[in-house]
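So, is this right?
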Amino acid sequence: MTTTLITGATRGIGRETARQLVAAGHTVYVGARDEARGRAAAEELGARHVRLDVTDDASVAEALTRIEAEGGLDVLINNAGIAMWGLNGPDALTMFDTNCVGVVRVTEAALPLLLKSGNPVIVNISSALGSFTANHDLAKPASHVQAVVYGATKAAVSMLTVQYARAVPEVKINAVEPGYTATELGGVANPHGRPVEVSAATVVRMADLGEDGPTGTFLEDDAELGW
């Protein structure tokens, strides 16, 4: 049985990824800051709940300690992220703390458990908005979107993926651009994106890699996306 932790999994792509992985036979921990929402989501999905705030070191440590006590971890999906559109210091710090430093906090806490797994995997949710290639390709939607700080945070997530894949070769570590999706990222419902089921499928595929799977890649649907 594969055990998977998904951060920020009470809604959107994280929640749908949890649903699909439960259906695929994974034991899934729904990581959530809000205890009530996390428990409700886990119960509905047939998953387990763990309180986890990626901006709080103590919360992250407690979550991983519990997961270790309950059997260990095979897959980590760093999904938690926020979008704030204000161009000011406080909002920028908040976004970087959640989207980037949060990845470091959870990854560092999870690595001792993952290194005990026979097939350890990390999937980082990045974005084409943080891809230098996509931002300079006029055929890509990302080249027409202004997301100054959010894009910078996702570029950082992509570099964290490259560096961690190099630093920890025992773990398959990849980034995913999940696609323009109908979610509530940024606190505003977006009815124009594609169904969340479609976007979560690539995350699920990368979470379910075999032992010979790739590492250090950036995936968009079925193709690699330039960094």
Notes: The domain at 3-224 is CATH 3.40.50.720 (Rossmann fold). Residues 115 and 170 are 7 Å apart (CA to CA). The beta strands are 3-6, 27-32, 48-51, 75-78, 121-125, 172-177, 218-220, 223-224.
